Amino acid sequence: MQPLRRYFPKSLYARVVLIVVLPIFLILAVVTYIFFERHWDEVSGNLSTNVAGQIALVTRLYEQAPDEGAREALARDALEDLDLSVRFDPGARIPETDKLSALNPYNRSLDRRLNRRLERNYWFNTQSWPSYVEVRVQMDNGALVFFALRDRVFATSGPIFLAWLVGSSALLGWISILFMRNQVRSILRLGEAAEAFGRGRDQPDFRPSGATEVRRAGYAFIAMRERIKRQIHQRTAMLAGISHDLRTPLTRMKLALALQPASPDIDAIKGDVEEMERMIDSYVLFARDIAVGEEPEIVDISALLRETADDSARAGRALPTEIEEGLVIAVRRDALKRAIHNLIANGFKYAGRVWLSGRRVENRVEITVDDDGPGIDPSKYDDALKPFVRLDEARNQNKPGVGLGLSVVRDVARIHGGDVVLARAPQGGLRATIRIPA
Fold first, then answer.
1. Half-sphere exposure of 76 (CA within 13 A, CB side)
2. Ordered structural domains, the chain, with CATH
3. Which of 2, 62, 197, 365 has the fewest CB atoms within 10 Å, measured from its CB?
4. pTM for this predicted structure
């Protein structure tokens, strides 16, 4: 089964169609085989046997006829009593081979019966006339030509039955496919709604439909979506409240410190207070950076990256770029721009030079920031993307912060259905790549 699995359909709709249609055609094939091999062949064989026997009888009587008058009387009797049209072609020779394919079931059936009954060479034609079958028997001085009604030789209702069988099966299969398409469509809508929510695009008009199980899954998704939204809002509100509560005593501390005479100890305490304020700002940023209130929009990523490079140049930080044109996708512009700025700021924080690039790879857009700093040990890449984690490596020594930079970037990438990938930059530092599905 393992080698065959790769040939099976991957989509649910294709699998359902296969499950419905394949048994129909298997049953059709079995019924057709049984009908033709048993019923049709038997009925047609009996008819062909009767006609072949009549042709053999007329042939023997024709050989025994004493004169031409007797032969003419025999032809009249054959037409009246046997529905066989008979004539004699003096000097005629029958064709040496059949003019019809041996694969024709009519030919095979008639040929077997004639071969048993006739002692002379014969030739028959089942296609030149729609209502008749022609049989020629070689005589000593010519050929006897017989014409029999097709209905007397073959069971002509067989193809009609087969046509009705195939037509009705095709109709039932088509109706089944339409029905299953409607059933699968509700699953596809559920998948689209879940994917859109994963990319930060809500679909408030989504309504579960279809079978009971599908509707149950749809309502479960809606409930899960609302719980996630509530958790996001609660997290943001909680950290905003903590920030507000902490800012009040910090402000009082700053005022009290401002009234104190200058001294190294006072300056150190002021530095600690300022770092605490930065930490609080980072906490709030981490909670709100997924920009719950921002709706996705069509954005020219190429233009956004050039704008970011210009902003960096105006700030006195040269930012070489390699940007592919036509990178247009639906994103949360402000959140993505903030994530790119975060990567660039991190790069300049730990390195002397930073590079920015953007390109399309298969079905996604990749935004890459490289630097020539000390980089990160590859074994610590996963830790570097976790919130509130500071690596005890050269890249982080004596650098203020709370370990949220790359975590915030990954949050932004994931709300767009993408992710952040870390690697070693060609310049020797860290390469951070934001991947967003196009």
1. 6
2. 2-155 (no CATH), 231-277 (1.10.287), 291-437 (3.30.565.10)
3. 2
4. 0.55
